[in-house]
Specification:
Helix content: 25-40%
CATH topology of the largest domain: Fructose-1,6-Bisphosphatase, Chain A, domain 1
CATH class of the largest domain: Alpha Beta
Oligomer: single chain
Number of strands: 15
Structural class: alpha+beta
Radius of gyration: 18 Å
CATH architecture of the largest domain: 2-Layer Sandwich
Strand order of the largest sheet: 4-3-5-6-7-8-9-10
């Protein structure tokens, strides 16, 4: 199965509204996505191992990462790279750093659950300039470049307009990497259930962020994420008009990995729940 460009995306590329580095990132994401699409449902044909109790890696993750790294470094030899599987690559002194998650949602991929994505971001001098999240199974390419808006398959997207948690659909995940936090988090989760219409736990943070960006989710919160989980999605949400903070409402989520996001009204409501919950400092 090979994923091809759809008409809107072709028009978008033809008009060259994309930053040239974004164009390369899209190319890399699509190449990796083709590997994912060809191999999902074929787990007898690839290797699966555990980095730790709750973190799988497959030979397809590694193949996807190699395709992405090779594509990026072919065009930008002097750039640095932070990749989930390979760690720091390229030039460590460069002000340009690509942040890569070759398969965000590896457990879904292994279990033949069709919800995973390729995530690629570019930071320059510490600021995220480009974000690409590609769902190859739905052929959905989410893109953003700083100051130029966010797009889904070439069509502009915006966060939802809900003014409270009443009727809201919120994305989240349990802190499986930090099970010592679970008891406190479940109290927050209970308050969240009481306040909104429903909660979704999908298994791919980058897509959760993109679903906020295009209005499918009204908000999203999760703890203990790594840079490759959120670097691209963070920019896409912000370029779609959303706000991204940590659980205290500060911009320190890049260090803590604890993220809350939504439009201004929804994020205020989510932060209010967070502030009332008995969370330790490391959970904020």
């Amino acid at each position: 199965m090979r994923v091809v460009l759809n008409f809107l995306e072709l028009v978008f590329l033809w008009n060259f509204k994309m930053h040239p580095m974004l164009n390369i990132a899209v190319r890399a994401a699509r190449a990796a996505g083709n590997l994912i699409a060809r191999n999902i449902g074929q787990k007898d044909s690839f290797d699966i191992s555990s980095k730790n109790k709750d973190d799988l890696v497959t030979s397809i993750d590694k193949q996807c990462e190699k395709v992405i790294v090779d594509t990026l470094l072919k065009s930008y030899r002097n750039h640095g790279i932070l990749a989930e599987e390979g760690g720091a690559l390229g030039d460590p002194q460069s002000e340009y750093q690509w942040i890569i998650d070759p398969i965000d949602g590896t457990t879904n991929f292994v279990q033949d659950i069709g919800h995973c994505a390729v995530s690629i971001a570019l930071r320059y001098a510490g600021k995220t300039e480009i974000g690409v999240v590609f769902d190859p199974l739905l052929n959905e390419m989410f893109t953003a470049s700083r100051g130029n808006g966010a797009f889904l398959n070439g069509r502009r997207i915006r966060v939802g307009q809900r003014i409270s948690l009443d009727g809201a659909i919120i994305g989240t995940a349990f802190p499986m990497r930090y099970r010592n936090r679970m008891s406190d988090y479940l109290q927050l989760f209970s308050s969240l259930i009481d306040s909104c219409a429903d909660v979704r736990r999908m298994g791919s943070a980058s897509l959760d962020l993109c679903y906020v960006a295009c209005g499918r989710f009204d908000g999203y919160l999760e703890q203990g994420l790594k840079p490759w989980d959120f670097a691209a999605g963070d920019l896409i949400v912000r370029e779609a008009g959303g706000i991204v903070t940590d659980f205290k409402g500060a911009p320190d989520f890049i260090k803590s990995g604890n993220i809350v996001t939504g439009n201004p009204k929804v994020i205020n409501a989510l932060l209010s729940l967070c502030q009332k919950a008995p969370l330790s400092d490391e959970m904020k």
